[in-house]
Write a structure and sequence with these properties.
Layout lengths: L10 E3 L10 E9 L4 E2 L3 E3 L4 E10 L3 E15 L6 E15 L1 H10 L9 E2 L4 E3 L1 H8 L40 H7 L3 H5 L1
Parallel strand pairs: 7-8
Antiparallel strand pairs: 1-9, 2-5, 3-4, 4-6, 5-6, 6-7
Length: 191
Amino acid sequence: MSRPHPRSSLVIDTRDLNRRPGTMHELSRTVTFPDDLGTDVIAIKAGSPVEIEVRLESVVEGVLVTGSVSGTATGACVRCLDPVDLEVDGTFQELFAYADRAAHHHEVGADSDEDEVHELVDDLIDLEPVLRDAVVPTLPFQPVCREDCPGLCSECGARFADDPDHHHEVIDPRWSALGGLLGDDPQEKRN
């Protein structure tokens, strides 16, 4: 496991807890992510401020990290392509195990899924993966600018919000060949 960069705003030093179970420390921080936090459709953009509230509790196995994260995700409405700004809030709780405790769990096979084990590295906690796991599932799969957004015309791309009466005469393709038999004026063909 690589050592987190101690000067990163997403890394927390836990030496103040002194490995004494019951010791607690709380902090609030404004952080920025080096990469987008989200999906291609909507995300908290890299460099955007994200507020975190964190409570660190020393327990026998390691440090229990409980907190919340909030920020503003930006993207595009999937119906009309207008910009969307969405306030995002997530919560998290993760145990960061001391290296010796984590090694013991691996030896006895207590944790079969290694991806679920978060370890302290030199008393440092990297919050980036935890915050990513807290934020990304809260983002909408298909963001909309408003719940009743009418979207765009599939024929010409016109915004239905600008022209609610917009429509196109669409002839069923099975009958389109018969339309040519009548010409421009159906009354002329009948006489």
